[in-house]
Amino acid sequence: MANVSVYNIEGKEVGTMELNDAVFGVEVNDHLVHMAVVNQLANNRQGTQKAKTRSEVSGGGRKPWRQKGTGHARQGSTRAPQWTGGGVVFAPVPRDYSFKMNKKEKRAALKSALTSRVEEKKFIVIDEISFADMKTKNMANMLKNLEVSKALVVLEDGNTNAEVSARNIADVKTAKTNTINVYDILKYNTVIATKAAVASIEEVYA
């Protein structure tokens, strides 16, 4: 089992913690990690892109000139794709980009992402994040003490003060143990998790 240091919000080491290899020590599957990221981005796409084909563009009902004898190439409509103001060839239409990943694949991808963060020493465990009030400076000071920027902070349920304190910091995102995903784990430079959150993740995914 991997041993990681446990810090407090002042950035001081207060102990160590053993991580469960079933979650934080698996063999990293790059293919599944990539697939999970593509899946999330595809599922988030609105799919509302639209352009008009030649049958949808207004005008162009009359043949611009007779078929033969003008010296021009024959034309049937001024709304054909080769004309300015004409329709688009194979125009994009609203569609659903989402695709399904199996539950086992999703779990394996998440474990791979967490393992890669532990291996890269970009996974920090905090004993607890308890702020007396909801102030941005509380979270900013904690990140400064840990010498971290652009972080994903994983919290246990009910930690509203920490959640709200991070809301106005541009490069920080909070997540609960049931909302963490591969894309966010890889997007942010560091993953910070409380001991309670780590225990919850191990309970769900081990």
UniProtKB/TrEMBL annotation:
It comes from the Bacteria. It holds the Pfam family Ribosomal_L4. InterPro entries: Ribosomal_uL4, Ribosomal_uL4-like, Ribosomal_uL4_dom_sf. GO terms for biological process: translation. GO terms for cellular component: ribonucleoprotein complex; ribosome. Keywords: Ribonucleoprotein, Ribosomal protein, RNA-binding, rRNA-binding. Gene3D superfamilies: 3.40.1370.10. One of the primary rRNA binding proteins, this protein initially binds near the 5'-end of the 23S rRNA. It is important during the early stages of 50S assembly. It makes multiple contacts with different domains of the 23S rRNA in the assembled 50S subunit and ribosome. Part of the 50S ribosomal subunit. HAMAP family: Ribosomal_uL4_B. This is Large ribosomal subunit protein uL4. It comes from Mordavella massiliensis. The gene is rplD.
